[in-house]
Structure formats: C-alpha cells, structure tokens
Design a protein that fits this description.
Number of domains: 2
CATH topology of the largest domain: Helix Hairpins
Order of helices and strands: HHEEEEH
CATH class of the largest domain: Mainly Alpha
Radius of gyration: 22 Å
Structural class: mainly alpha
Distance between the termini: 29 Å
Strand order of the largest sheet: 1-2
Strand content: 5-15%
Number of helices: 3
C-alpha cells in the first residue's frame, strides 16, 4: 500500500534535485551574461534573456519542491503517521491538527464556520514529519 507513495516521493525528490542544479547553472549563466555586457561584448537583451530563463527555472523549482513535499506527506500518511500542530490564537493555545479525530473539520466556538484540522504542507508540519527542528 505504501509502495506507490514511496516511489512517488523518490521520483519527485530526483526531479527537485535536477531542477536545483538547473537553477544553479542558470544563475551562472546570468553572471556570465552580465560580465559580457559589462565588457561590451554582448547587449543587454542577452542579460534579460538569461534572467528570464532563470526566473522560469526558479518557478519550476518551487513547483518541484511543492510536489516533493506533498508526496512526502502522502508517504507519511500511507505509513499511518499523524501529527499535531498547535497555534496561539488570541492568547489561547489551540490544536489545529488532532490525529485522534476522524473528522477533518471542527466547528468554531461561534458555530458558524468549520475549521480545517489538517493543514497539510505547512513548514511546521513538514519539519515535524521529516524530523527536522
């Protein structure tokens, strides 16, 4: 049952690593194009084109990170994991995620809007999942 999320996480992890390398290479390309421009051997259009490529790659990297994190959460859930994230709202400690409840929603104290209990993908929850501070 957990094999598919495991394979998915591995694939997304590899994609993210390749995309990080691509961003590093494009950052170097921007630096080189700036040096060429300052040296008078290239026009500014070359600099703008290399910056555009870098920005596109950075957006793709952000998407790859999101996919990797989401697949890590799916793997964690497939292995039966649960977690609890708490937040202080109005000076009162509130549990946002409660793994003991089957319901995904809790009613607010005023009773008019549901509060989502599982905040998947936030940095606090992800750090707890992967065992980082």
């Amino acid at each position: 049952m957990f094999l598919t999320p495991l394979i998915g996480y591995d694939k997304y992890h590899q994609v993210r690593e390749r995309q990080e390398q691509s961003v590093k290479d494009l950052q170097e390309s921007v630096n080189v194009s700036l040096m060429l421009y300052r040296g008078g051997t290239a026009n500014y259009l070359v600099v703008l084109d290399s910056q555009r490529s870098l920005f596109d790659a950075e957006i793709t990297l952000a998407q790859a990170r999101n996919n990797e994190y989401q697949s890590l959460i799916e793997l964690y859930k497939a292995l039966g994991g649960g977690w609890e994230v708490s937040a202080t709202i109005g000076g009162q400690q509130n549990a946002i995620v409660n793994e003991s409840s089957d319901s995904m929603f809790d009613m607010q104290p005023d009773g008019d809007r549901p509060q989502i209990k599982r905040a998947i993908g936030d940095k606090i929850g992800l750090a707890h999942i992967v065992g980082r501070p």
